[in-house]
Design a protein that fits this description.
Layout lengths: L1 E6 L2 E4 L4 E9 L8 E7 L6 E6 L5 E3 L7 E6 L4 E6 L8 E8 L16 E2 L3 E6 L1
Parallel strand pairs: 2-11
Antiparallel strand pairs: 1-3, 3-8, 4-5, 4-9, 5-6, 7-8, 9-10, 9-11
Length: 128
């Protein structure tokens, strides 16, 4: 079993930056091999996959955040982060980290059902 905890959310003005972190604990012996993602969900909206990073460090992003957000991982610390810059009011949402307990990040990485474990979420609010 794996437990994921997000941190770093908060309120910021448009154009600002935030860095989210996701700490994994529990059965993390193979953490470095797994595919890790970030999702977000705004009120009355579906959960949206926005970034993914594979065991090899390869990344992919949703078009809505490409060029503004950067996903990274530190396998020694069992963490993966999301650096968010150029924030917009439409980025306001609850952000979730997720783990896929497989090496391969599939083409459908932005779908919620691609992942096995989830954090509890952290709120990001961007004011105009």
């Amino acid at each position: 079993q794996v437990h994921l905890v997000e941190s770093g959310g908060g309120a910021v003005q448009a154009g600002g930056s935030l860095r989210l972190s996701c700490d994994a604990s529990g059965d993390t012996s193979n953490y470095r091999y797994y595919c890790m993602g970030w999702f977000r969900q705004a009120p009355e909206m579906e959960r949206e996959g926005i970034a993914v990073i594979g065991h090899d460090g390869r990344t992919d992003y949703a078009e809505s955040v490409k060029g503004r957000f950067i996903i990274s991982r530190d396998n020694a610390k069992n963490t993966h982060d999301l650096q968010m810059s150029g924030l917009k009011p439409e980025d306001t949402a609850t952000y979730y980290c997720a783990m896929r307990r497989e090496t391969y990040c599939p083409g459908y990485w932005s779908r919620s059902d691609a992942y096995h474990y989830w954090g509890q979420g952290t709120q990001v609010t961007v004011s105009p």
